[in-house]
Fold this protein.
Amino acid sequence: MQPPAPQRKRPWALLAVAASCILAMILVVGGGITFLALNRGGPEPVASDPTTTSESIEPSDSEATSTEETPTTEASDYSEFHVLGLGEFPEATPEELLGVMQDNPLTEGGLPDVGSCDLPATPTAPSQEQLQAVLDAASGCLNQVWSVASSDRGLPWTAPDVVVYTWPDVPSSSSCEADTFAEDFPRMCNLDSTIYWPLGYGTGTDLEDEAHVPGAYLWDLAYMYSNSASWNSTLVFYQGELRNQYENTDPEAFDDAWRRNSLQWICWASAASMQVTSAAQPSQELRDALGSPDAWEAGEPPNDITPENRARWISAGFDSGGDLAKCNTWTAETETVS
């Protein structure tokens, strides 16, 4: 599963910091991280009122002793979240799958604080070695966040590696197809648990003050880690199956699902980036810029999200204190995820 490709608004000079952003989210279920973010299904079915007659009729003895059998629908084995095994896919109704997305271990509880996180000074146009160094350091911090969060919930976790490369020289060692890589966005290849990062990409490249650059790369990488959290927990397969079922039956729910997942990911990224030591966090100026609707484009339908809602969920993550319930887009009102 590949994460949503960012859609920057260029140039965006907000504040003296002159920040920029990533994410317009384009996720695709099945081919890499470009798939996430979904919608809710239709209204819950309700039982119809029993038919009535204008006069009361006493049942006969035979009627009184018999009971009418009413069909019941048993919940599937996937109506509640559990970690899926290798090659296992959730066979459930859209309502059940939506329920899993609304209520699973990553919709509650907190992310842990990281006791130590040192990011090296990084210029706005780093060399391949400098970029690799700051991403490796940021990865070490984010691994602490998600490994503990996963362990606390009984979820598996495999820390992704980060490989910086120069486009278009896609590393031949990658397990993902070369034509799934892009010049302007990292490739999360879950097949080999590696984030392939093209030199020249990053929010930090749009900043004027180098003091804000390391925290910007931490935030960028935290977004890629949202994909890893969803993949390792196997939650991505519940969301993917939900979207698959909506694709040919409910296009509106299909698109809404994409938005919800995309916005949850970006909220997770902001939340995780604030669990590190204060010196490594995105600066207040950068957080203000990222949380401004002026920083974002809506994107192209159907993969569009209003700048106001994107900024809403970015800010919710920054202000969450690590509380994952603050990032539960699946229970949010539709107008907040449009």
Q: What stands out?
A: DSSP finds eight helices and three strands in the chain. Residues 10-72 have pLDDT under 50 and may be disordered. Residues 39 and 257 are 3 Å apart (CA to CA). Residues 128-152 form the longest helix (25 residues).
